[in-house]
Amino acid sequence: MDNYYPRLKDLREDHDLSQQQVADYLNMKQPQYSRYERGYRDIPTDVLIKLAKLYQTSTDYILGLTNIPDAKPHKK
Fold first, then answer.
1. Helices H, strands E: what count in the chain?
2. What is the pTM of this model?
3. Which residues, including other chains, have CB under 8 Å from residue 49's CB and lie 6 or more apart?
């Protein structure tokens, strides 16, 4: 499940945001956010949910459990 670290960076860059902008949105310092992107720290659930809302995607996508980026639930 550690493949989500690069996905965070890709999502941020796809939305033309800097690490500082994302850190500001999350009410944290940029170095702390950078540690999530580089895989030095696990992402707390509350931060994961905020990132999913920011990028309008699912937490499953961020975590690499699915490759479908939209946040809409899919029928089985």
1. 5, 0
2. 0.86
3. 59
Tell me: the pLDDT tens digits for 16-69? 999 999 999 999 999 999 999 998 999 999 999 999 999 999 999 999 888 888
Token digits of residue 47: 């931060």
Residues 71/58, Cβ–Cβ less than 8 Å:
yes
What local confidence, expressed as pLDDT, does residue 67 receive? 87
In a 10 Å sphere around its CB, with 0-12 CB exposed, 13-18 middle and 19+ buried, how is residue 72 labelled?
Answer: exposed
Inter-CA distances, 46 with 16, 34, 40, 49, 74, Å: 23, 17, 18, 5, 23
